[in-house]
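Justification of computing resources. Each target in the renewal requires a structure prediction run like the one illustrated here; the chain below, 137 residues long, is used simply to show the kind of job we budget for.
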Amino acid sequence: MSNRDVVQSKRLFLRSLGIIPGLFALSGLTLLSGCGLAVTRRQRVKKAVRMFFSDPRQATEIGQLYINSSGFDSQLDELLDDLATRIELRWRHSSADAQFLLVKQIRNDFARGNIANFYGWMLSPTELRIYAVRTMV
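Resulting structure tokens:
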């Protein structure tokens, strides 16, 4: 089932409940999350993170250090949700959009001085989470 088919079926479902589909923000974002919206959002972030690295081994060392120090060891969904929230990923955004938004968020982190010295690397919190997700997937 394509992304367009999923959106169309959600609209039909909302109409059957008497909800106007254009009012997603007002009517039922929580309702939609039960229809699989959160899952597809996670999948788009996961795909965007995979596209970041031509060689995933680049991320593994830093990602594993971050996972060990932060306690995110088995919480992939939590990390994906956090990244999606940080970049304000909406239902209309593709994985390519998510990748662009991740890069934009990293730049914003650096512009705001929101960076940390992590084992000698100057990284933003967004970058650390990207490394962690890439290590887990």
